[in-house]
Structures are given as structure tokens and as C-alpha cells.
Amino acid sequence: MEFLAAYDTIPQSDAARRVALLRERMKADGPAVLRELRAARPVFATPAGVFVTRMTDVVEVLSTPDVFTVGVYGPLLEEALHGPFMLARDGADLHWHDRAHAQLMLPARDFLPVRRITARLADDALDRAIASARATGRETFDYIQEFSAPVAARVAQEYLGFTGVAEEDLHLLSQRVQRAVFVNPDRDPEVHAAGVAAGKELHELMAEVIRRRVAALSADPGHDVPDDVLTRMLRTVLPPGADRPMDEERINHQLVGYLIGYQQNATQCAATALKELAIRPEELARAERSAAADDTTAFDGYVWEALRFHPFVPSTPRLCVREHVLAAGTPRETRLAPGTVVHAHLASAMFDETVVEDPYAFRPDRTPVHNLVLGHGAHACVGRYPARAILPEMVRRVLLRPGVRPLPGAERALDYGDTPYPQHYTVTADTGAPS
Ligand code: HEM
């Protein structure tokens, strides 16, 4: 039975069964459910919140932060980070200020240096994974455990400044925080407690890194300190009158917050982009040819288009804090009351056939305007410049090795291991021809 027909047979009073069916169908075939909703009920009120599925309406929600706030997860995020953070707040005060600081700390000019760092670390991880497979008589390796997670963590060490923090800690602790804040819809107390404890551990690890760095900077202000985002933050003097000084504690919150915004995203996107290419052999072949070009613009289009089919953040919740008429003047116009949870469905918006031309076709040269993989509006990814370097380059280094590919016949086989995140993905370990 089509989703809405099945949903409507459940009495409105049976909220639990309606929510269970919604979750079950979204898990089984989310794209089909969303396609039906966009056509028949584009603003879909459920007991678990209002699902907003069309591009224009998603953009409206995410661009109106004085009505639609991050209050759904903001308090949880700050509890886990043990302090304030931009993705937990809205408005002129902290969000505006800290986002401005982040834009200065993660500038567009980092694109090429970060790309070079990623290329080196990715090549090194591929060499290690292949060597380890050979040494142990395996013909495959685990793309997530041996490639995407460690490369993402090593970029965090070298570029962001998590110097000396073990890569397993960066990956596993940030995963616990992510899960507790963003993927714990029933507020499982164990998941929550693990996230809060992991956030504290990250904060303490970062405090130690900052202490060491401050000492190194004062002992030898000119030399011998890593040229990374942490050093940049410690050296930056904000203009007089800036609302809040960026002291060591606040620098710590910024950097741990960045890590939460980055590590799982990069790890998963590097895997889902490869999967989406591998299940389309003709596109994969074109992407492989494109990967060899010095100008990476065309190649990057393959990665962002692949991620449109499987983004890390399919939907982001917002809390409606004052009455608002969504999609005013259209047939789907909906009055929303304060207190309503609204799900801005990015994954659906990117397939909105009323806006995106031939949305189910794979087109690497689409306009970036229709790609919401890095979010949209007031809280759109502030790490977009490094993100635009790291993700495509991780995938590119893999495609430059013809012997490293998802196992034939198992291209879709991301293994989530009972977690919300892919944990394993098997790829072949032939050496091929390194670039
Ligand atoms: C690697 C791939 C990345 C992906 C796919 C990604 C994705 C996203 C998305 C979808 C959002 C919006 C969340 C929402 O609206 O609820 C976001 C926000 C954010 N991202 Fe990223 N991100 C990536 C990398 C990074 C990096 C490298 C950094 C920092 C170094 C970063 C820092 C942030 C921060 C701080 C926010 C919140 C901005 C705000 O509240 O104004 N992200 N990201």
C-alpha cells in the first residue's frame, strides 16, 4: 500500500502507530515516501512534527531563524559541549558573533592548502591499508575503519589543531556526541549520557592541547608551532568592542564544536559518495577520467551530485517559536503554532521536481544552488571551504587507484552495525597505479 493510504487508515488518536509507520517506511524506502509527500502532502503534519518537503519551503524555514530556531537540539548540544556554541543558538548575539569568528578562522583561501593536506593523508592511508591487507593475506580492506575515519581525524589533527589527540578518540568521541544530540529521537538516556561524557572528554583533551600550544607560542612566538586553525585562533585579536573575548575556554568550544560538525560528516560522505558512484558504473568511469585532470572543478561536481543522493544530514529540525504561515499564498499554505517541531527535509528538497530539473538523473554539472548537502540559511555549514576541499579530495585519491573499489556486487553494502552511522564498507585492495 502507498504510504499515505496506509497512514490514513491509522486513527489520528493512535499517534504511536502513526509515528512507527512513518519511521518504518522512511527506513525501508525514504525517497519513495518523500516523493509521495511532495506530490500529495508537501507540508505533512505528524505527531513527530511537521515534515517540510519542497525546496521553497525548506529554504523558508532555514532562512527565518527568528521564527524557526535550533531549539530542538540546541540545549542538548550545549549540554554535550559543556558550553555555548553557534549551532545551538540563534540571533544577533552569540550565533552572529561566533559564526563571524568561524568565517574568519575557516576562510576560502584554505581551500587549496587543505586539499593538499587531504591528498597527502589520503594517499598515505591508502598505502597503509593496502600494505596491511597484503601483510595479512587479505584482498580487501575496510574503507571506513582504515581510510575515511582515520583520514578525517588526521585532517582534524593537522588542519584544525587537535595535535596529539588520538584519532580513535576524535572519531569515537565525536560520534557519541553526534548521536546523542542529533540521532536520538526517543532520548535514550544511555545514548544521551554517553554523548555528554564524550563531550566532556573532548573538552578536556582540547584543553590540554590548548595549554601546550599557549606555552609553545609564548616560548617561541615566531616559530615551531603548527600553522593550523588553533594557532590562528590564539593569535587573533578581535576588534575592541567585540561582544565576547575568544578566551581559551571559548576557543575550546569552537574547536570541539567544529569537530562535531565535521568528523562524522566527512567519514560518512566519503563512503556514501563512493557508493553512489559505484552503483552507476558509467558515471564512475566518467568520474575516474575526470579525477585525473589538474583542474578539479568538474570532478568535484561528481562528488556533490553523488552526495545529493545520500547526504549526511537528510533533514534538520527547527522549533517554531512564533505563529507563522508557511508557504503563504500557495495551495500548501500552513499556519504553524509556536512549539511546533518542523523538519526541514534537505534530502527531499534536492529532489523537488517543481524546482530541480529531472531530479532523479545523475548530473554532475548541476547548479550548486540546488545542492543542500552543506545545509542552507542561517546555520549553513560554516566549514564549507575546508569541506569542499576535504570531501572531493578523499574520494578523488581513491578513484586515482583503479584497484581500490567497492566489492563487485556489494557496492551498496554499507554496514551500519546497529548504529546510525556506516561502520564498515569493504573495498578491494589491489595496488593499481598510484597517481
Ligand atoms: C565534511 C563535510 C561536511 C558536511 C557534509 C557538513 C554539513 C553541515 C550541515 C548540513 C550543516 C547545517 C546543520 C543544520 O542546519 O542543522 C553544517 C553546519 C555546520 N558545520 Fe559543517 N559540514 C562539513 C564540514 C564541516 C567542517 C570542516 C567544519 C569546521 C571545520 C564544519 C562546521 C560546521 C559548523 C560550526 C556548523 C554550524 C554553523 C552555524 O550554526 O551557523 N562543518 N554542516
Describe the structure.
There is one protein chain. By secondary structure, the protein is α+β, with helices and mostly antiparallel strands. The chain has a domain at 73-307 and 382-428: Orthogonal Bundle (Cytochrome p450), CATH 1.10.630. Helix content is 54%, strand content 7%. The strands form three sheets. Strands 1-2-8-5-3 form a five-stranded mixed β-sheet, with helices on both faces. The protein has a two-stranded antiparallel ribbon with strand order 4-9. Strands 6-7 form a two-stranded antiparallel ribbon. The N and C termini lie far apart (50 Å). The structure holds protoporphyrin IX containing FE. The site of protoporphyrin IX containing FE has 28 residues, from helix 5, helix 11 and helix 15.
What is this entry, summarized?
By secondary structure, the protein is α+β, with helices and mostly antiparallel strands. 54% of the residues lie in helices and 7% in strands. The strands form three sheets. Strands 1-2-8-5-3 form a five-stranded mixed beta sheet, with helices on both faces. Strands 4-9 form a two-stranded antiparallel ribbon.
**Main pleated-sheet profile:** 5 strands, mixed
CATH topology descriptor of the domain at 73-307 and 382-428: Cytochrome p450
Continuous helix count: 15
- Helix proportion: 40-55%
CATH architecture of the domain at 73-307 and 382-428: Orthogonal Bundle
Distance between the termini: 50 Å
Bound molecules: protoporphyrin IX containing FE
Q: How many β-strand stretches?
A: 9
Strand content: 5-15%
Radius of gyration: 22 Å
CATH structural class of the domain at 73-307 and 382-428: Mainly Alpha
Q: What is the fourth-level CATH superfamily of the domain at 73-307 and 382-428?
A: Cytochrome P450
Strand order of the largest sheet: 1-2-8-5-3
Mean pLDDT: 95
Poorly predicted ranges = none
